[in-house]
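## retry 2 of 3
previous attempt timed out at serialization; input unchanged, resubmitting
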Amino acid sequence: MRSIFSAIHWLAWRNPRRRAQNLLRFAEVEADGGRDIVRAAELTPDPVLRRLFLKHALDEQRHADLFRARGLALIRTLPREAAAGVRADWLTPGERGLDDLRVESEGDEALLAFLHLSEKQAARDFANYVAVLGGDPPTQAVFEKVLHDETFHMTYTRRELDRVAPEQAAGRLWMARLRRFWKAYLRLAAGLAGLFGAIILTLQYYLLLPAFALLARRAARKEPEGWSAVAPTRNGPLERQY
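## retry succeeded, writing output
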């Protein structure tokens, strides 16, 4: 199974254009996550969490700068046609967590549980990216730097969750897993719905429209050429408008 995921990651990163697009997308996600964590630092009454959240937010902004700089550097190496096709505003978050949680309406426990799972998944993914990016040392070095911080984020969020909610930590993690699973299901369902819709419309275009066109052509052959005489019942005096 691990080799399968490694092959998938290799395919996802082997193309320089796709690599640049992924890096720019990661930059947007990290910057957005950093803003949310700053908001969490403003709301928490815990001074220890406030200090850790602010450090976490600074790390996220630094990650965004690293990803953006490397993504733009890759774009400059692409042919003009390929570079023009890179969408820098394509937001499909790779580090899930805060996009599933309203910071203002959740307590520190829920936020720490979501952050821990998100950072844990990000650390796992970034380690895989480091393993498959041997052909691109500069990009590999970026992920190695980010991976070091993600490991710290994963560790401190679990430690602080155990501190602020020692009896509820396990339950909070399970609730966060269920919410992430539900969000992932909704994203998958929406993607499959779009795919099936495109397939059905394509089949209708290539199968049904030609049949209707054939029937219309056959009906047109039965029609006499030229003008058709109007029925006598319609040639009476115009005594009313309708």
